[in-house]
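User: Let's play a game. I give you a shape written as tokens, and you guess the letters that built it. Ready? Here's round one.
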């Protein structure tokens, strides 16, 4: 097994499914796996859809997609049955429910995002240098942005990237967006497929010139990904003397926290702060989303603020949108997490 310092993106095949892993200093940080063929449409897919029937009392509209699939469009005011519209999948559908979609399309690349219907150029807040911001805006303008009624968001990965590379990516995404937005056919159809694990890894994990990208058979075994998955794939997550159990039910994801062999007065707070640090990765590596309920170790109410601050700081760098909802009357803490991924099947890599 090869253990390498720094960032590595590894692409491999498992059970005829493409899989991507992000390793940082030899530790597994993120994992993406290709959905099965019968999985619901993945986030990012763009469809031409037909309005079917309104959802009375809910302000939404059921849409027809190709192959007998259905979607739920919530911003349906003024939309009549039979109307044709282009929509994008926002998250995976819950079992037995329609696919959630929006008509606010985005076309995401490694360095920029093109936004039809939202003109202007915005630069990531993570890029602080004013000269670099101006350089990036000039690079975007090389792509003749003014010829299209679209906007561009410059991602943090564009910092220090070659201006010609940025302009090329903008131009390619503008052309794709324009082809989709000006589509005039009338039957339900998949217009842009959702990105697979390798594309997502390149798009969302990579920083130009700052990591190795390894795409080869056996990469997971050679670079320790399988061993890391074996350690992180179960329900139990070790946190020193403490531990947490992350378990999915039909209704929610339950997280149970135990202090273990620590009997000190501050054991509950220490365990809960360890959970705050470890929870984003635990959810990410298991592909879990939706409602998340934390049954924390006992701690004084005065310590809740410290726990919330630690949890908020931990999720700030997590790539999956997560809302910290707050405390329940029973003292549980609730989160709402976007269903960007399908749950990783238990025992898949064992």
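Assistant: Ready! My guess for every position:
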């Amino acid at each position: 097994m090869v253990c390498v310092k720094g960032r590595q993106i590894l692409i491999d095949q498992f059970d005829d499914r493409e899989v991507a892993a992000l390793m940082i200093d030899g530790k597994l940080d993120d994992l993406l796996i290709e959905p099965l063929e019968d999985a619901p449409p993945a986030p990012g897919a763009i469809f031409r859809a037909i309005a079917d029937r309104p959802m009375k009392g809910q302000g939404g509209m059921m849409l027809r997609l190709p192959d007998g699939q259905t979607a739920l469009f919530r911003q349906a005011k003024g939309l009549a049955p039979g109307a044709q519209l282009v929509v994008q999948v926002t998250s995976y559908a819950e079992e037995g429910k329609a696919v959630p979609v929006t008509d606010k399309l985005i076309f995401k690349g490694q360095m920029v995002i093109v936004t039809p219907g939202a003109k202007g150029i915005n630069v990531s807040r993570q890029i602080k240098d004013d000269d670099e911001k101006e350089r990036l805006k000039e690079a975007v303008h090389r792509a003749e942005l003014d010829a299209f009624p679209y906007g561009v968001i410059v991602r943090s990965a564009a910092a220090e990237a070659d201006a010609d590379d940025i302009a090329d990516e903008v131009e390619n995404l503008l052309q794709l967006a324009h082809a989709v937005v000006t589509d005039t056919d009338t039957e339900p159809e998949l217009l842009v497929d959702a990105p697979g694990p390798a594309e997502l890894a390149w798009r969302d994990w990579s920083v130009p010139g700052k990591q190795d990208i390894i795409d080869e058979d056996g990469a997971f075994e050679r670079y320790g990904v399988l061993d890391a998955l074996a350690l992180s794939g179960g329900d139990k997550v070790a946190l020193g003397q403490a531990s947490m159990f992350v378990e999915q039910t039909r209704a929610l994801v339950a997280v149970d926290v135990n202090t273990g062999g620590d009997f000190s007065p501050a054991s509950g707070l220490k365990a809960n702060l360890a959970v705050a640090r470890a929870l984003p990765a635990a959810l990410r590596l298991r592909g879990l989303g939706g409602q998340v309920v934390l049954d924390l170790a006992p701690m004084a109410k005065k310590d809740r603020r410290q726990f919330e601050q630690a949890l908020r700081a931990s999720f700030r760098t997590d790539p999956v949108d997560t809302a910290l909802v707050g405390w329940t009357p029973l003292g549980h803490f609730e989160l709402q997490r976007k269903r960007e991924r399908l749950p990783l099947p238990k025992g898949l890599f064992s």
